[in-house]
Amino acid sequence: MSTRTIKLDMISRVEGEGGLTLKVKDGVLTELKLHIFESPRFFEGILRGRRLEEAPDITSRICGICPVAYQISSASAMENALGIELPPVLLDLRRLILYGEWIESHMLHVHLLHAPDFLRYSDAIAMAKEHPKEVQRGLGLKQLGNRIVSVVGGREVHPVNIRVGGFYSYPSEPSMRELRADLAHAIDECESVVRWVSSFEFPDDETPAEFVAIRGRGAYPLLGGEIESSNGTSIPISGFDSEFEEDQLEHSTAMHSHRRNGDSYLVGPLARFHLSRGVLTPRAQALARECLPGGAIRNPYRSIVVRAIETLVALEGSLQIVESYEPTGAPNVGYRARAGVGFGCSEAPRGFCWHRYGITADGLIESARIVPPTSQNLAQIEVDLFAFASARLELPDEELKTECERAVRNHDPCISCSVHFLNMRIERS
Amino acid sequence: MKPRLLPKLAVWKFASCDGCQLSLLNCEDELLAVTSAVEIAYFPEASSNRGAGPFDISLVEGSITTPDERDRIQAVRRRSKVLVAIGACACSGGIQALRNFGSDVELARSVYPNPELLSILETSTPISDHVTVDLELRGCPVSKVQLIEALQALLDGRKPTFENCSVCEECKRGGTTCLLVSKRMPCLGPVTVAGCGALCPAFGRGCYGCFGPKESPNMDAMTSSLRNVGLSDADIVRMFRGINANTPAMANAAKDVR
Description:
The complex is a heterodimer of chains A (429) and B (258).
Chain A: E1 3-8, E2 18-25, E3 28-36, H1 43-47, H2 55-60, H3 67-82, H4 88-119, H5 124-130, H6 132-153, E4 162-163, E5 166-167, H7 173-198, E6 210-214, E7 226-229, E8 234-236, H8 240-243, E9 244-247, E10 256-259, E11 265-266, H9 269-276, H10 282-291, H11 303-323, E12 340-348, E13 351-359, E14 365-371, H12 373-390, H13 397-409, E15 423-428
Parallel strand pairs in A: 2-15, 6-11
Antiparallel strand pairs in A: 1-2, 1-15, 2-3, 4-5, 6-7, 7-8, 9-10, 12-13, 13-14
Chain B: E1 8-13, H1 19-25, H2 28-37, E2 39-42, E3 55-61, H3 67-78, E4 80-86, H4 88-92, H5 104-111, E5 135-137, H6 144-156, H7 167-174, H8 179-182, H9 199-202, H10 219-228, H11 233-240, H12 248-257
Parallel strand pairs in B: 1-2, 1-3, 3-4, 4-5
Helix pairs in contact in B: 11-12
């Protein structure tokens, strides 16, 4: 009997830190663990006893990559608890800043983290030497995403303008006007990015996952009160707890989410695209038909194309909001504190981010529960990796490590949210 | 011709949100210039290349919260010529240092069903509590301008120039009317070090101190001003116990409120 242990100590080009261990017994993969060694930071505990107004600024610190989604999910949960609704102009600004985060995060992942895998470089710096035009174009789009976040939110990482009830201030009209011409040009540039990434070679791989995302109701999913699944069901966000649960595992400071019956599922670009491909804008629709023909996209390698198409969706959506921008009324809705429970949900670049808070009559947070996108995907990533690695055990350890690392990166895990990631080890026996 | 040897840059992550190292990747205009001036020798978030060191410049993000991190920072220091702490977590312990003021067991229990599976220290502490730090870049997140200035200065072999005045002076220069005086809005600007460009007041909200206290802040006067605009003692304590709760100035002021 022979045992082979293959360990990848740290998976690179992912946000946050984690590793992977594979145990192989007599040529059969017996165990696969995705380790998350991000230090726990206990956000849900820290939030207790704080003012409800503090939740957007505190929860944004969970993740420097998608702080906007945390701010919007927490603010909407509070608004839900307080029984207030935002007028369309403020909801549009929430969409705009979230689009900005999608553009920044997707272009970062596509160009700096993911594309080097397909073109076989160790990083974008090496890639930039031979593909300077593409890297510059990607950085330009990424920068525009950051500019949107800054115009609406004040700064790129941990913006300061989002508050419970709306915004502290309206973004200035000249700064919004300046975005217009750049957005129109960026939409053309982004089309070229979609065609560039769709020309890559995609290894065979398929995830059988159930796809879950916010229900878009005629629009591409972003904000909303319902969650829908590829199994045809749809639930209000307040029903998330009764359908899904989280487990703590010894090898991970990230909790693993799954359905109450134990089944894993996938959130993020593949899920959103699967559920909402029918409501893409005509330009994105035509490009999707050209670059992602066929029905469901289940090959995680192709997620790079989906991210590029989602970037186009976000750029077009941003342009529409910027063009119709007319600040009217106060930048925020007033409220009086009252005891209650509130739910909030928004689509972060990696999938939806779900929040639930209990509030006291004095406006203090009594309980907090936050389910980040990556903790929802970890269980499914393990399932997918198990099948992926099982089919490639004949590879020498180093090659197998490289391939598994790529397979993990397909999912763009963001593991800083060690409210709740990757070293890789393969044990062969 | 002999190839020029570029200084080796490493980026390390401890307990943090990734936002400060992302700020480096957010310097889109300067990114390719930076990468031609240094060799990125260790930056797992951005590259699969992992050098063993030694490194000329180490940027350290995050605070020390686990026994493993406590050991790891020593190894980073040994392999680094210059060690720069970047961001509030690395400089003060960060928002996760709020656990220093409550029971961590209780906190862990409130978040994880089986806290015994976690290996954690009782406190979240800045890098300088553990090793010699050559330069600190404050802020949550760090300012890109300060980050580029620090790298430029280190490459030039000079001391970086940062302002050490308060956010108040940045408000004056930016033409923002004082929110504390004119709108009676709670604001930590008077005791917070400049660096953000007085961003929050420009958006019509009080400063919440993400760059941390300036040198010798008058915390007593700050407490009085916050009382004057109607904040309760409990709310003042909450304001001091924010992103930089673990700095001596904020920790002591919070204690003195009661």
